[in-house]
């Protein structure tokens, strides 16, 4: 399978809010996206976790 599941965690409160997929073969750096955190109640950077 060329894609893997990743979990996105809020950088502010560390809660794991989102699950996404990414290509294993392209890029080994961790994914960072600005998404809404329901616990914080605002848009915050979310980083890839395992």
What are the main properties of this structure?
50 residues, mainly beta, Rubrerythrin, domain 2, 4-stranded antiparallel sheet, 0% helix, 60% strand, elongated
Your description of this structure?
The protein has strands spanning 3-10, 16-23, 32-37, 42-49. By secondary structure, the chain is mainly β. The chain is elongated, with a radius of gyration of 11 Å. β1 (3-10) and β2 form a beta hairpin. The protein has a single domain (3-49), classed as Single Sheet (Rubrerythrin, domain 2). It has a four-stranded antiparallel sheet, with no helix packed on it.
Outline of the structure:
This protein has strands at 3-10, 16-23, 32-37, 42-49. By secondary structure, the chain is an all-beta fold. A four-stranded antiparallel beta sheet has the order 2-1-4-3, with no helix packed on it.
Strand order, main sheet: write it out: 2-1-4-3
Mean pLDDT: 92
DSSP strand content: over 45%
Give the number of domains. Answer: 1
Radius of gyration: 11 Å
Backbone shape: elongated
- The level-1 CATH class: Mainly Beta
What string gives the helices and strands in order? EEEE
Q: Which percent range fits the helix content?
A: under 10%
Count of individual helical segments: 0
Q: Which second-level CATH architecture applies? A: Single Sheet
Low-pLDDT runs of 5+ residues are: none
End-to-end gap: 17 Å
* Strand element count: 4
CATH homology superfamily name: Ribosomal protein L33
